[in-house]
Amino acid sequence: MTTRAGFVALIGEPNAGKSTLLNRMVGAKVSIVTHKVQTTRARIRGVAIEGESQIVFVDTPGLFRPRRRLDRAMVAAAWTGAADADVIVLLIEAHRGKTEGVDAIIDTLKDKAQGRRVALAINKIDRVEAPVLLKLTEEMNAAFPFEETYLISAEKGYGVADLRKWLAGAMPEGPWLYPEDQIADLPMRMIAAEMTREKLTLRLHQELPYQLTVETESWEERKDGSARIDQVVYVARDGHKGILLGKGGETIKAVSKAAREELEEFLGRKVHLFLQVKVRPNWLEEAERYSEMGLDFRDGN
Question: Is the pLDDT reported for residue 101 higher than 50?
Fold first, then answer.
């Protein structure tokens, strides 16, 4: 029996649905999904098994025009992920079509994707009529020689099995890279921090989009099988701390409860989660915070 294994980079604009597609492919919630753009910071890998193939997904941050150091480090991480992969999948949204951002990605692909197999996945197909889809497919394939084009809905699952099957066959022959029961190569501490950050993002909406980060400070396995997890939420200003805590601490309590419940479901056991909020005015300029997120501080220069 021939086994195959390799890396697939999912690239696209922010909010194109890369995290949703990864979670659908892997069958578990590995990368955080929110309605807010730019929530994936670290290059999270999910591992999917299809027949005799193991597909390791690199979920890259969305590609956009970077302004700050953090943005630049995220875009650099995305293109590094693509350059390291065996197959690149460009994900675009059917209803937004061939945007300026997509054009910019295609231009960079022409330069960076040499020798790589590249497929196109048009997501959210349930939002447009068939003629619009056909026109977009033709337009995209005229702009870049994609090996395959898939019409999918990552959220509803349409077309995802076909894409996964093709990817499985496109992986190089070789032994599997991860044990069969391992779905993500991120340390559990980082997955736990990402889950809490997702809950904060959903709860706070526009108030503190990128001014916070979450770190898991300690993880203690208890004799009764439960886990005690202590996390710190870093914010840039004192005013942010008040927003985060909420009136009588209600915001942080609600976030803590939602994150704890999701962690318990993910781990399949009881979790005691403790959150602290600390002000660190310059956390966006600290190299240590970047390594916590799996990014290279130097890429932000």
Answer: yes
pLDDT at 15: 79
Rounded to the nearest angstrom, the gap between the alpha carbon of residue 240 and the centroid of all alpha carbons in its chain is: 25
pTM: 0.63
Instruction: Report the distance separating Cα 74 and Cα 78, nearest Å.
Output: 6
Q: What is the DSSP letter of 110?
A: H
Non-local (6+) Cβ contacts of 253 within 8 A are 246
Nearest in space to 236 (alpha carbons), one of 267, 257, 207, 264: 207
Which residue from 164, 121, 112, 167 is spatially nearest to 146, judged by alpha carbons? 121
User: What's the rounded Cα separation, in Å, for the pair 171 and 249?
Assistant: 50
How many angstroms separate the CA atoms of 224 and 205, rounded? 37
Q: Which CATH architecture has domain 4-170?
A: 3-Layer(aba) Sandwich (3.40)
Superfamily of chain region 188-300 = K homology (KH) domain (3.30.300.20)
CA dihedral (193, 21, 29, 243) positive or negative? positive
pLDDT digits (tens, 9 = 90+) for 113-128: 777 899 999 999 999 9
Contact 59, 22 (CB under 8 A): yes
Is there a common fold for 4-170 and 188-300?
no
Q: How confident is the model at residue 227 (pLDDT cuts 50, 70, 90)?
A: confident
Q: Report phi then psi at 72, rounded to 5.
A: -65, -40
Q: Whole-angstrom Cα distance, residue 259 to residue 253?
A: 10
What residue segments make up the domains of the chain, in order of their start? Answer: 4-170, 188-300
Residues whose CB falls within 8 Å of the CB of residue 36, separated by 6 or more in sequence, listed in order: 201, 202, 205, 209
Please check whether residue 272 is in contact with residue 257, taking contact to mean a CB–CB distance below 8 angstroms.
no
Do strands 227-235 and 271-279 pair parallel, antiparallel, or not at all (unpaired)? Answer: parallel
Q: Determine the number of helices (DSSP H) and then strands (DSSP E) in the chain.
A: 9, 9
